[in-house]
What we know:
- This is Glycosyl transferases group.
- The protein is of the alpha/beta class.
- It has two domains: 27-205 and 381-413, Glycogen Phosphorylase B (Rossmann fold); 222-377, Rossmann fold.
- Helix content is 39%, strand content 14%.
- The chain has helices at residues 42-54, 98-117, 131-142, 157-160, 164-173, 185-193, 236-249, 263-275, 292-296, 312-319, 347-359, 361-373, 380-395, 401-407, 414-427; strands spanning 29-34, 59-65, 79-83, 122-125, 146-151, 179-182, 199-201, 222-226, 254-258, 282-285, 300-303, 324-327, 340-342.
- Strands 3-2-1-4-5-6-7 form a seven-stranded parallel β-sheet, with helices on both faces.
- Helix 7 packs across helix 11.
- The longest helix is centred in the first third of the chain and has 20 residues, at 98-117.
- The protein is globular and about 60 Å long.
Amino acid sequence: xxxxxxxxxxxxxxxxxxxxxxxxxKQVYSVALISQLYRSGGLERVTQLxxxxxxQEQIKVYLITGEPTxxxxxxxxxxxxxxxxxxxxxxxxxxxxxxxxxxTEEKNQLLLQYAKQYNIKLFVCxxxxxxxxxxxxNFLKDHNxxxxxxxxxxxxxxxxxxxxxxxxxxxxxxxxxxxxxxLSRVDVQLWRKVGVQNAIYxxxxxxxxxxxxxPSNLTTNNIIMVGRFNKDQxxxxxxxxxxxxxxxxYPEAVLQLIGEWxxxxxxxxxxxxHVMNLTNNVVFIxxxxxxxxYYQNASVLIMTSKTEGFPMVMLEAKAFGxxxxxxxxxxxxxxxEGVTTVWQGDIPKMAEKIAEILIDKNLRKQRGRESKxxxxxxxxxxxVQKWVTLIKGIIDRNPDTIPKIQETEEKVTYERALEVLKQxxxxxxxxxxxxxxxx
Length: 439
């Protein structure tokens, strides 16, 4: 079992303070954000933004990633990057071979070394889809190190992705966390139900200030879909199939698929384009560090995702006043306002809704305005302050930290969360799935 990777020898970390010690006002709060990659994805963008803002708030931030590449995001000023990662191919217990197991243990030992060398007092773990994520959390907690995890997707992600074993690991591991940061209020209720009492809601930071960017003029025929190519979650192939319906209504429409792609899935999508004779209507664009020009020249953003947490691409598109059409994801906070939704997988209806926006210029402007206005309830100043309060409170061992942050939440009742979960189970033919509590 993966958890056997955890070193059974207890090592007391030098930077731990006695609980009754008076806090030094000049104390430097040292935090490490762990992310295997540092390019192209929403999680990676979140990592960059979080590092940038926290480094301005009396917090020393370290990024712990894999080896740097030319495509990586910029490392913010006053943030130090460390390398301590292994490419984790262990998406399930069968494929996590012995080499990866050994590498994961080596990585964990190096994290412990960094904790001592740089006086890192708290680690932020984010990669909920990898077994190494749970190994690392348990390893760090066994060595008395503070750990926050960010759950970057919906509670049902393991079920959506056919990795139910990840749910088993999470319900055993997450109760040990000092805090579990969730990206929706529905998630908070469900995680608390399974014993993760330190679950709290903190939204992602805005990449762009809507008041400071030049919005799209909404005059092109461009439809954009932004994100790493992923067949099971992002489902770019469904966006291509949708275009076969849309061009019959609006032949001038052009779909720009922007993002880093895996070779096999890209070839599959390319083949669909050729078979459906859409070469003039679908354009593949590799990952772009500077995505602004694409938002400014788009008239619609589409999302065909099966599941999401708090997608940065939707935040970004909304900041530029781009109308959004997406498969309905009731649990996601960004879907609550400013999104035209269709039932999951209903690509003819999605084509119809997009055509309405492209044909009617007044409707296009209205939807763009609604999209931008929906960001008013998200404020980077408030979000950063929650993170600062959380980090400093955990490091200072303040028992009131989590309850105080929880008090600021705009509540979603457990009954509502359960209703959303049931809807998701029904939509995915998983009714009757045993989460360990009564539905």
